[in-house]
Amino acid sequence: MAFGAQELRVLRRALALALNPIPVSAQEAQDCLRLAESLDEAMREGARLRAFLVADLARYRAALPGTATGYLALLDEALSAGHRPAADDLAALGALRGNPAAAALLARCGPTLPAARTHLHALPGGRQPDRDPAQKPAPKPGSPQPTPATPKRPVPTPGEVFPRRKPTPPAPSAPPAPDTRHHLAAG
Fold this sequence. Notes:
- By secondary structure, this protein is mostly helical.
- Helices cover about 45% and strands about 0% of the residues.
- The chain is flat.
- The model is unreliable at about 110-125 (pLDDT under 50).
């Protein structure tokens, strides 16, 4: 938020009055009230802008990965407007971390996310497993059998999400009428 010279003068006077209360003129009181109204309006406008950007972010995030470039630019703008990234934003950035712009925004947001597709092999209490991580433990007698994991749907490519449109052939142009002459004038 930027203040003009007149606004700074009023703000400085209001701060001085807050520290050392003395009677003020009607004009000074009116100036302080106008400055407060301007600040309130700026705060409301900032909140409206953030709400608009957050709604756009949700739409772009829903269309990822095909909208990664637009999403990252919009997230950057929203962060500059004071938006605090939500869990959905951090998850989307984590999924896009191969993109340098996404990595920079993720660093700007400050969270530390585990590397993609890594598995934690430590047991509770900090002990390391004694067996090969690829080996599965035998089920205990009487325990329910684990259900097989459903295969994860692959992430579609941008070409699958946004298929190319076939170009429309140009309309045939009519040949010029036989009795008209076209001359280019030189000079």
